User: Fold these one by one.
Assistant:
Number 1:
Amino acid sequence: MSAVDQTIPYDEAIAQFDPVLGLEVHVELSTATKMFSGAPTEFGAEPNTQVDPVSLGLPGALPVLNAKALESAIRIGLALNCSIASYCRFARKNYFYPDMPKNFQTSQYDEPIAHDGFLDVEVPASEDGTKPAFTYRVDIERAHMEEDTGKSLHVGGSTGRIHGAEYSLVDYNRAGIPLIEIVTRPLTGAGDRVPDVARAYVATLRDLLRALDVSDVKMEQGSLRCDVNLSLRPTPQDPLGTRSETKNVNSLRSVERAVRYEVGRHAAVLLSGAKVVQETRHWHEDTGLTTSGREKSDAEDYRYFPEPDLVPIEPDPAWVESLRATLPEPPAERRRRLTTEWGFSEPEMRDVLNAGALDLVEATVAAGASPATARKWWMGELARRANVEGTDLSALPVTPAQVAELQGLVDAGTLTDRLAREALEGVLAGEGSPTEVVASRNLAMVSDESALIAAVDAAVAANPDVADKIRAGKVQAAGALIGAVMKDMRGKADAARVRELVLERVGS
Amino acid sequence: MSSSVNELVHWNASRLSEALVAKVVSSEEVTQAHLDRIAAVDGPAETGVHAFLHVAAESALARAREIDADRAKGAVLGALAGVPIGVKDVLTTRGMPTTCGSRMLQGWVPPYDATVVRELHAAGLVVLGKTNMDEFAMGSTTEHSAYGPTRNPWDPTRIPGGSGGGSAAALAAFEAPLTIGSDTGGSIRQPAAVTGTVGVKPTYGGVSRYGLVALASSLDQAGPCARTVLDTALLHAVIAGHDPYDSTSIPADVPDVVGAARQGASGDLTGVRVGVVTELSGEGYEAGVTARFTEAVALMREAGAEVVELSLPNLVHALAAYYLILPSEASSNLAKFDGMRYGLRVTPEGEHVTAEQVMRATRAAGFGDEAKRRIILGTYALSAGYYDAYYGSAQKVRTLVQRDFARAFGQVDVLVSPTAPTTAYRLGEKLDDPLAMYAGDVATIPANLAGIPGMSLPAGLSDDGLPVGLQVLAPQQADDRLYRVGAAVEARLTAQWGGPLLARVPEWKGATA
C-alpha cells in the first residue's frame, strides 16, 4: 500500500483550479443470458455455475450476440439522445488476466453502437441553500457494448488484494455478462459544484436506466459501476491537465466524495510543483481516500482489432425507430411534471427521490390517495420500517394499493392515525389487506355515540374530584377523563369527540 | 497389396455405404478392419504413418454396433451411416482428447462436441479417432506436431503436407475412407495434393466453425477429405449448413454437391468456362507439377470446357497479406492458452509465484517454435503504431484479392491452378527455413483470403513418382462447381490410369527409425 497522499482542503483547492470531470459508467444489463452465449446470469449463484463453453472461453467456442442486449444498448443510446450507428463492429481488447477467459475482452473500440448524445442533469441546491439548483448538460461521447470479466478472489493476506495473497480463486459467473459502458466527454464549467454534478449525473443516469428497465442498477451489487476521471487546470482557458482514473466508485455518496478528494489531491500535487501522474486509482469507501493503482501510460497497448468471430451490426432504421417509441418519459421531465402535479416543494421531492420512493408514491396516488398522504406514509412510517429492516422501500411487503386503502380508512373516519399504523403493522406481518386487518384485529373506531356517552359518564362518576375541577373552570383537567375514556375504548375513539362529550356531560 | 490386408479398407465410402445398406457387411466389420489397419501401419510414432494422435477403438466399435442394430431394426439412416471417419485433432470431441497437436492441450478432454462432430454423429458416421496435425494448424508438413510428424504413405521419408497431414495420410494409407480437415491457408488442399487424395475447403461460412479450435477466425474453414470426389461430396453434404452457434455461418441452403459430383462423373464439361490463373503457375513450380497441370487443363478442354487464361494481379501480394492477417488473429486466438483453466500448467520453482509467472512459464513450455514465431509476429503486427502499416494494409490487399476473384468469376465458372508448387519434400528439408515453407502455400491461400471454396484432387504423379494436385476454385457458395469439374477430371484421369491413383501407393513398410 502506498503512503497517504498529500491533499489540501477542497475549498482551498477549488478556489485555485478549474476542475474537468469525466465519468465512465458500466451498466450490467439484466438480460436472462450472457452477451455472447446462452449461459444464465443469476446474481449470487454458486461460483462457476453460470457458465458454458463460450463464457469459459473453451477452445473452439464462438460468440453469438444476444439480441436483447443489442436492443437494450440501442434503447440506452436513444434515451441518452445519441446517434445510433448504422454499422458497427465488436473489437478484441487484448490483455492477459486470469479472470478473462480468452485473455481478450470482446468490446467495441472505434465503432460504438451509440455516440454523441447528452443527458440534462438537475443539480440540486446545496444543503445550506447558499448554492442554487441548476441544470447541467452532460455531453455523452459514446455508449458501447462489451462483456464483463470474471471475478478474482484473493485469499490470504490482510488486504483482500492481490498483493500478499496466498492464492487466488476465479469465479467466471460474471464473465460474459453484457455491459454497456457510457462515457462522457470532458465535463467543464462545473466549478466548485463539480462533486454535485458528478453525483447528480450518476443519480439521473441510474433513474433513467431503471425507467428503461434494462438493468438492476444496484451500485452495491456492481450492476452499475462508476469510474471517475478528474483533472485540474489553472484556468478554464488552459489546456486539459493530466487526469487520474478512480475505479469502482460504487455509491452516489462515494462519487461525490471521490471527486472532492481527487480535487484536493491533484491541487496538492500541482501546488508542490510536481506533475500529476496519469494512473488508475482505487477508491476506499472506509477511509474516503484513493490510492495509486497501476500507472496508465500511453505505452499500454491493447492491440485492438475487429472481432472476426462476430459479424458487423447493421440495425434496421425502422427497428431503431420502433425502439424509440418504447422509451419512457425522461426522469428529469417526469420529476418536474410530478413536482408540479403533486404540489411538492423541491426539498420534499428530493427526499422522495433519494428514498427511491417516486414510483411508489406515484402508484399510491394512482390508487386514490392524495399526494401529501402518499408521501407521508412512504417517507414516514414505511421509511422508518425499511430503515429498521435494512431493506429498500420497494421490498417491504406492502403494495401502493394497500397504502392507499389504509389512507382511505383514515379519511373515512374508520381509523385514527395511530390505529392506521397498527393496521399497517398487520399488513406488513402478512395478515392481509388493511380492511382485513382492521376486522381481524378489531381496530375500527367506535362510532356508536351511546357507547361513548356511557363510557364518559362512567369516567365522570369514577372521578368526581376531577369533574369538580372542570366545573370550577379548570378545563385542562379534562385530559385525565379523556384519557380514561380512551383507555376504556382501547383507543378506538375520536379523541376530539370524547373531549366534547366530557365537557358536555360534566356540564361545565 | 499384401494378402493380409482386409479388402474392406480399400473400399471407398460410397461403396461401403452401398454394402452397408445392402447388409453385405456390417459397420462393426468395416470399423474393425480399419482399426486393424491402423494397428498395423500407424504406429509406432517413430516409424509408422502416425496419422492418428488418438484411436478410440472401443467407442468406435460400440457406435458401429449401434448403427448395425438400428439398421437391423429398419431405421432410416444417413447415406454414410456406419462408415468410419477420422477427425482432425483441431475439432472438439466430447469425452475424447483434443490436443491440436500441441503440448498445451495434452490430456484435455473437451466437455462438448464441435458442430461438425455433432453432425457426424447424427449422420451415423463412426469416429475412429483424432488425426495428427501441425500444432494449432500452423505448418505445411505436420512436423510442427508436438507428438511427432506424420509420414507420407507414398514415401515414409517425405512430408504428408500440413497442417492436416494426418487426415490426408490416413486416407492414403487406407486407415480411414473419410476424414475431416481444416483449411486456413491450404491445410486441407496441400496435404491432399501431396498424398494423392481429395480435399475441399468449403466456402467460408459454409461449414460451422463452432468447436473448431481457432487459428485465424476469418480464414479457418473445416472441410471434407476423401479418396474420391464423390466421397468428398457425400461428406461435405453431412457437415455443411447453417449453424446458429457460429455467427459467421451462412444462413442459406447448401448447394447440391453430391448431385454435382454425380453429374461430373460422366466426364463431360461442355459449356463450363475454366480460367487458368496466370499468377499461379510458371516460375517456382516444379516441372513435374507444371506438366501434370498442363495435361489436366488439356483434358478439361477435351471434356468440352472452354479454357481461358486469366490474370489476377493482386494474388502476388496475397502471401504477404496472409502472413500478417493469420498471425495477428492467431496471436489473439492463442492467448487463452495460459494454464489458468485447462490443459498444461507449468508452475515455476520458488516462493510467491504469481499467476503472471505461471502464464509465462506455461506458454514458454507449451507452445512450439512455429506457434511462438507466429504469436510474436501477430502481436507485433497489431501493436499501436504498426497496426495500420501491417494489419491495416493486409486487409486492404485482402479486399483487392477479393475483387480480383469477383472480376475473374464474371468471366469464368471456375479457376484452376496447381495446388502446390512442389510434390512432397523430405521431412526436415524446410524445417529451418520458414519462409520457404510459407511459399509453398502461395496457390492455396488466395481462396482463404477471399472466402471462396477450393478443391484439390489428384492430377497424376510427377517424374519422381509422387502425387501432384490440381486445384479448382469457385465463387462463394458455388461449391457444387468444384464437384462437377473435379468429378469430370477424376473420371477421365482414372480411365487414363486404368484405376485410381492410390492403387499405386506402395505397401507400407515403415520408416527406418
Number 2:
Amino acid sequence: MQRRLLHALCVLLPCSPLLPPAYAQAAEAPAAATTPSSPAAPSSPAFPAHHSDQRISGELVSIDFIRRIGQFRATKTGNVVEFTLPPYGTAQYLNSEASLRDLPLGTFFLFFLNQDTQGGWTRLATMQDQYTMDASHSFTYRLDEVKLAENKLLTTKHSISKKQEDLGKKELLLSPATRYWRGADQIRPEDLKPGEELLYTLTGKTSSNPGVCTDIWAGVETHAQATKQMREKFDAFTKHRGLPGWVDKTEGSTVTVTFFSGDAKLYQTLYGDALAQGKGGNLCVANQDLRTWNPGVDKDGCSIISSEKIPPDGYGNSGIRATFKVSNMLEGFRKGRVVRFFGSGWPTKDQFYGESLMGYGFGRLQTPELDENPAKEYPDQFPFRTDFGNEHLPWYQIKPGIAPPPFAQHVVLGELTKVDAATRTGQFKTDRTGELMDFSLLPQNLGAVKYLNTDATLGDVPVGTRCRFHLFQDEQGKFTKASLVTDEFTRLATNAMTYRVESIQPTPNSSDPSSVTVNVSWQIPEVKNYNGDMERPPDIGRSLIRLNKDTKVWKGKLETPAALKDLAVGDALIINLTGDFANAPAVCTEVWVGTDLHKALAEAQKNKAKLAAGKNAIPAPNK
Amino acid sequence: MGIAAFLAAGSCPSLWSAESTVAAGIGTPAGLDDVVRPFFQQHCNACHGEKKQKADLRTDTLLINARSPKTMGHWEEIMNRINSGDMPPDDEPRPAPAEVAKVAEWIVGQLREAEAQHQASGSERVSFRKLSRREYANSVRDLLGVNFDVKGPAGLPEDPDWHGFERIGPVLTLSPAHVEKHLAAAEAVLDEALSLRPEPKRDIIRWMPFDMRWKGFAKEYEARGIADQVRIEIVPNNYTTDTWPLEVKTTGDYILRVKLSGLRPEGGRAPRLKVYLSSVDKTLLEQDVDAPENAPVTVEARVHLIAGKYPVRLINSVPGPNPEARRSRHSGTANAFTTTKSRVPWQMKLTDDDYKPIQPTLIIDSVEWDGPIVESWPTAAHQRAFFRGADVPAQAKDITYAREILTRFAEKAWRRPVQPGEIDRFLKPVEKAQQLGESFESAVRGGLVAILCSKSFLYLEEGNTTQTSPLLTDWELASRLSYFLWSSMPDDRLLNQARSGRLHEPEVLRAEVRRMLADPKAAEFSDSFPRQWLQLRKVGMFPPDKVLYPEYDENLEQSMVAETVGFFGEVLKKNDSLRAFLDSDWTMLNERLATHYGIPGIRGDKVQRVSLKPDDHRGGLLTQGAILSLSSDGTRHRPVHRGVWVLESIIGRPPPPPPANVPALTTPAAGEKKVTVREKLEQHRADPNCTACHNKIDPLGVAFDNYDAIGRWRTVETVRDGTGADPQLDPSGALPDGRAFKNGAELKQLLLSDADKFALAFTEKMATYALRRGMTFSDREELKQISDQAQSTDYKIQSLIEALVTSPLFQKR
C-alpha cells in the first residue's frame, strides 16, 4: 500500500517511477551489499489472462507519456490510484486504441489493473472511456428529449445491431463546458435532435455524483468518424515508432515476436500484411517503456520467415506472432525483451527528443529524468536494491565519509513539518499515508538541501513544503538518513521542465470555493532540430494541479505577488506545493509564472547564494 | 641471387665461344653430344654455325662453362627461345615437343649446376657466408643473453631466399644500409647486455578495466562497490581502442600477463587473444582462450620491448560478425561490463536466451607488464666481459685489461681462437675513447660493438688467406655444425672439441650430433629447416579471396604452417623414417585446422599428434594445408604449381621455367558447361610447345585436385563460370615412366615405392641447408652415399643427419 501511495505522487509530479515498499523492510537489519545474484534466464513472457484484472473506474488526473505511468482518482473512494502501463498495456479512447497523448485529463475511464510483483494492483492492462465501453458493445443512447434548461438529455440505451431496443433510460448531465459533435463539426446543444444516436464521455463522476458529459457525439456516422480519426491517428503514431512486441524466443539468427495490441481484429487488418511471411523491414531494440535508443542507426534489417495467427489470449495480445531472420543478432533480441518492427517502406526514425533513450544528434538531454536509467535498464550493475529494481537485494548502507553512488537512495515524498536547522534534523509527513517521519541530514557535505534550485539549509525551506527526501537506512534499518532534501521547484529546474497552462477551471466537487484546477502540460526546452532550427519537442506528460487562495502567484516581477486570476492559458509555470494526502490533495504553495521570471529568480537565488557564502566566510582577523 | 642476377654480375664483352674454351670448368657434360648437338645440328646451326652467326651466336661450338656467366647466359637464352617456340623461326621445320623438352631440361640442369658451383667456394682462399638475421639473433642471445628483435623496426632486413633457403652464402649480401643496421643493432644489444646504466628497476605496469575503457565510470563503480567486477568484453574481429599507450622506460624482457575469460560457443571456436603493438606491427602474444566467464585464466608471454611508447591493441582475432563498430561499443550510460547478463540492447548479442555463449568473446580483467626481467646485476654478460669484477682499481683498468676483455669476447664471438694482432685495430677506438675522457667500461664497450660488427662475427669464415684447403678446420666444422642444428654459435663444449682437434672424428661428431639434437636449441633446426625446404614462407603470400574462402583467416594460416613444422618436428623427435613425409597415418593438428579438415574432437590451439583414418584423406606432407595452399593462388588451386612444387621439393628435379607470354587458362564462354581446371589444362597442353613439360608436371599436381585452394577435401570442383552442375574431379594420372595412379593416395604409394629417390632428394635439401650452398654434380656421388648409408635404418631422419655430418661432404669447404 505504501508503495502505491508513494507512487501516486511520483506520477502526479513526475519524479521517479515505481518506488518499492521501503518501509515494509525498514525494520529489517541491513545486510551487507553483495554481488547481485544472477537472475535465472527469463521465462517466456505472457500476457495476463482476460478477467485476471481488477477493474476500477475513475478520472484520469495525470499521465507521463514517456515512462507510461499515470494516476486516476477512483470514483468510489475519491482516492488517487497510480498505474503503470506494462509494454503490452493499451489505452482505449473513442472505441480506438489511443496514444497516452490523446487521453484528455479529467475523463472518466474504467481501468483494468493487474497485480505487480509487490501485490499492488498497479499494472494497467487497458483502460476504456465511457464511449468505448458503450461502442465496443454496440450500445448507443437514443436521444429522447433535450432539456437544456435542466442541463440534461433524456436518452434510452439500446443496441441497434443486437436488436436490443430498450436497455434502460439514461440521463446525460451537461455543463457549460460540454462539447457537442456532429460529423467533424462542433455543434450547439440546441442542434441536437431527438432520435439521434448519442455516445459520450464523462467527467466529475463520484460515488455521489453521476458526472457530466465532457463531449457528446451525435449520429452513428459521427461515431464512425470519431473512431476512424482516432484509429488513423494511432496508426500514424504507431508506425512512426514501430510496432511493439516482445520476444518469445531467439534461435540462431531468428527472433520470434508476439506483437501488442488492444484490438486484435483491427490489428490484423492494419498490420497483417506488413507482418506476413516474406515481408521485410527493420527490427529495433526497445525498453519496457517502448522507448527505442537510436533506430536510425541500431535498426536491424530483417525478413519475416514465418507469421502465424495465434489466439489473442490475454490483454495486449495482437494475435500475430512472426519470426524474423535478422542480419545481426543484437543483445536486445532476447526472450522477454521488447522490440519494435518497422515495416517495409516505413521510415525508421528516432522517437522524439526526450522520448528516445539516446537523444542521438542532440547531445545530452537537459532533462536527466528522461535519460536512460541504468538502475532500471541494467539492475545487474547494482549490488544493492534501488527504487527501480533488485528487490531481492538489501539497500545500500551508508559508509562514513563516503558519498553514496547514484541510485542508491530511496526517494520518499512528503511535506516538511518540522525542522531544526542547527542540528540538521527535521520531520516530514509522508505523502498519501500521512505518516510522520523523523530524519537527519548526513554529516557535512554528504547531506545537502536545495531550495529554489540553490544550496540551502533546512531552515530555508518553509514548513509545509512538499519535498523529495533521498533517504538511506539507519542502524535500525529505518530510512532516516537524508543525503538530499529538495523542493519541487528544484526538481523542475534541474530537469529544465515547466508546466504550460492548458486550461483553468474551478475544482469540481471541492468544498473550497477558491480552489481551481489547472490542466498543465509538461514541457521541456527547445532544442535544435536536424535543420539547426530551434524547436519545442512534444510535451512529455500532462497533469492537473490545484491552486487556491493561499497560493502565492508570482507573475511579471518578484517583488509584488499577483493573483490567481492573473494566470492565463499558455503560461509556463514552476511550482512548489504541499503534500498530498487522501483527504487533502496537494495544493500549490507558490507559482512562478513565465520564463523571464524564472531566469530572474535563478539570478536572484545565485546572488543570494553568493551573499550567503560571503556571510559565512570567516573574516580576516583585525591587526 | 637468381639466375638472371648471377648472369648479369658476370657479363663480359669477349666472344663467348672463345672464352668458353679457356675458362675453368669447361667441358662436355653428358648429354651435350648425344642430346643437344644433334638438335642444334638439325635446327640451329644453319643460322648459328660456321657460315652464319646470326645475333653473334654459334651453337655448333658452344660448350658448357659454369664459371662464365656470359656463356651460361647464352644457354639460358637458347632454352627460353626454343621453349617458347621463338626458335627455330616459323619458316623452319618445327622440332618435336619431346625433343624441345629434352634439350630444355638438359640446359636447366646445366644452369643449376653453374649456379651451385658459383655458391661452392672450395676454390676461394677464404669464403664468407653471412649469418641470416635469425642466426644473428640466436648468436647474440647465446653470446650476451639478449633477446634482440631482428624483425622489429630497429632490427635487420629480411633475408632473401634461394629456392626457399634463406642462408645461401652468395645470396646473403651486406649493403651499406645493412652495415648501419648492424651497427645500430650491436649498440642496442650491448646497451642491454652490459650494466653500464643505472640498475633497471623491475616494476609492474598494471592496466585495469578502468584504465582501458571505462575511465569516466571509475568513481561511480567504486561507490557502488563493484569496481573490482568490471571487465572489458571484446567481441570477435574487434579490439580495444589503442588510445592509451604502453610506456616502456627500459629496453628489456618483460612478462606480459593477461587475465581473462574466453567464451566459446557450443560447437564453435574459442576466442583468440592477440596483443599487438600497432605502431611497430608486432604481435606479442596470440593464442586461443577457452575459459568460462566465471573462471578467468591468466595467459602470459615473455616479450622483448624496446624503450618507447606503444599503442597496444588487445584483439579478439577470431573471425566473426562485427558489422558495425558501434554495435560493440558503449554509450555514455554508466553501465560498464560486469557480466554478459547486463549489456546494452543495441550491442551485438554474445549469449543466447539461456545466457550460453553464441559468440567467441574475450573478457579482459587485467593486463600486466612485468619487467624488465634482469636475472642479475651486473648482468652475466657484463660479468663475463669485465671478468675481473667490479672492484678493479682504476689503475688496473688499462689497455692490457682492455685487450684481454676484447680478446676473450672476440674468441667467443668469432667462434675461433684470436690470432695475435687481430685485436689491435679494435683496441684503437678504445684508447681514443679513453683519451677523450670516456670511462674504461664505456670505451671498452666501443670495442665490443666493433667486434659485433666485424666480419668474423657476421660471417661464417671458412679457409684462410695463406693457403687453400679443401677441408674445414675443426673450428670451422664446429660453426658449420652448430649453425646447422642450432642456427647459432657453438657452445663451449663444441668449441672445446674443436680445440682438442678431435671434432672431425666421426665418433666425436656422431656424439655431438646426438647431444645437439637433444638440446632445446635443436628446435631451431626443427622449425627452420622445414620452413626453408618446403618454402613455407610462400604460405599466405597470395591470401585467399575473402569472398570465395570466408573461413580462411590468419589463425588457419598459422595452424597450417604449425602442422607442417610440427610434423617435421615430430618425425625428428621420434627419429621416424623419411617415409612419413610421403605418407603417414597421423599428423599434427590443432583445433582450428582439425575443424578445417573436418576431424572432430581436437581442442586447443597447440598442435598435437592426431591419428588419421583413410576417410580423413590426409597423411604425409603432400596433403597438408600449408603445402596445398602455398601452391594455390588467392582464388583457386593451381595443379601446375603443385606439380612444380612436388618436382622441386619432393623429387628434387625442378622443371624448366615456363616460357614467356604463356596465355592464361581460358574460362568457358557464357552458356557453356562448367569445366574443371584440369580440363582447361588439358586444352592448354594440346599446344605442342607445352605438352612435354606439362606431361611431367601436371599429373603430380592434378593428383591433389581433391583439395581446394585452402586444402579442403572435395569431390567436385566449385566453378563460377559456365552452366550446369559443378563438375566432378578426376585426380587420376600417370608418371612419365607410365605408372598410373587413380588419385593422390595412389600417387603417394608410388612415391613411397621410390623412397630411395626421395631420400636422395631430401639429403640434397638438407645438405644445401647445412652447407649453405646448392649441391653440384660433383656432390652427387657423396649425397648418394649418405642417402644409401641411411637406407639401412629405413631412412630414420636422425641417422640421415648423422650420416650427413660424418660424411666427407660435410667437412668439405
